[in-house]
Design a protein that fits this description.
The chain is α/β, with parallel strands linked by helices. It is built from 9 helices and 14 strands.
């Protein structure tokens, strides 16, 4: 089996490693940047002619991951729609126009939990109403409607809503990576014991990137075309609790760290619901089961940033 991945971000990089270990080859479509330490001859620019690409590589499945998932960067409708909907929409249109989709088993279009937007005091099912409370959420809702359009035209699409995925290798602009990097810098006395953070009262559903890869594998094997699946842990935690777990696991004393919380860090356009907590009954019914607890993830991410800090010291 061959899988075509459109996108070169955190999830894409991990999916390559995951599937390669299963002897499943991945082909990459990239926009500006290739994936490092991966074969150049398996990476193609986004404007590559699809008919030629299919003739050479013959992919069986596609996972469309492309987008700008860092919510604060989504500050205008133009850039948000372009990054999170249009590029994938053009790709799906090309598959439709050329009839190449007939050669595929499944196409996974990756959306976001931010589509739900509104605060729910119970786990969010895939059937819940969508509320664009952020520009990023708006862009992904447009993507969802695009996916529905092409499902009606015969494309074998499965839509996923990705909740917060975290772990080894994620860049430090995201919350857990930021916490664990700076905690390591404090521990090594490379920076002062001060942490500048956002709104710690926010509640999020975090899933280890390794479990995230498992979830996509399960959906490719058992997912039903035309369905929507939440990808998440099914549990939620406050950002404050996440921070305290990271500090405790590092061996530092929270009493010795100054924590400066800025609850107005994001603008209204970048805001998400206070709580994003997934119902994953549909995903678990396919056979998905978590292998990593949040504590496992925090511990491994701390170790990852400890190694990077050692390299920085040298």
């Amino acid at each position: 089996m061959k899988i075509l991945l459109f996108g070169t971000g955190f999830i894409a990089s991990n999916l390559i490693d995951y599937f390669n270990k299963k002897n499943i080859e991945c082909i990459i479509l990239y926009n500006k940047h290739k994936i490092l330490n991966y074969s150049d001859d398996k990476q193609y620019p986004m404007d590559t002619n699809l008919e030629k690409l299919f003739k050479i590589e013959k992919p069986d499945n596609i996972i469309l991951l492309y987008g700008n998932s860092f919510v604060p960067n989504n500050t205008s409708i133009n850039s948000t729609i372009n990054d999170n909907m249009l590029k994938i929409s053009y790709f799906l249109e090309s598959l439709y126009d050329t009839k190449l989709y007939i050669k595929l088993d499944k196409i996974i279009v990756v959306g976001s939990a931010s589509e739900y937007g509104k605060f729910y005091n119970k786990p969010i099912k895939e059937s819940f109403d969508l509320h664009p409370t952020s520009l990023y959420g708006l862009g992904k809702i447009c993507l969802y409607n695009t996916a529905k359009y092409f499902i009606e035209r015969g494309l074998p699409i499965i839509y996923t809503r990705q909740f917060n995925t975290v772990g080894i290798g994620q860049r430090d602009s995201f919350v857990l990576a930021s916490f664990t990097k700076n905690i390591n810098l404090i521990k090594k006395k490379l920076i002062k014991p001060i942490l500048n953070v956002g709104d710690l009262s926010q509640e999020r559903d975090f899933l280890d990137i390794r479990d995230t890869c498992d979830a996509y594998d399960v959906i490719l094997k058992n997912g039903k075309i035309g369905e929507v699946y939440n990808i998440a842990s099914g549990e939620y935690i406050t950002i404050k609790s996440l921070l305290y777990i990271a500090i405790e696991q590092s061996g530092l004393d929270v009493k010795n760290i100054e924590i400066n919380e800025n609850i107005s860090l994001f603008s209204k356009e970048e805001s998400l619901s206070k709580r994003l907590h997934a119902d994953i009954e549909k995903l678990t019914a396919l056979g998905f089961k978590r292998s990593y607890t949040l504590e496992n993830t925090v511990q491994d991410t701390l170790k990852y940033w400890e190694k990077r800090c050692l390299i920085a010291e040298k």
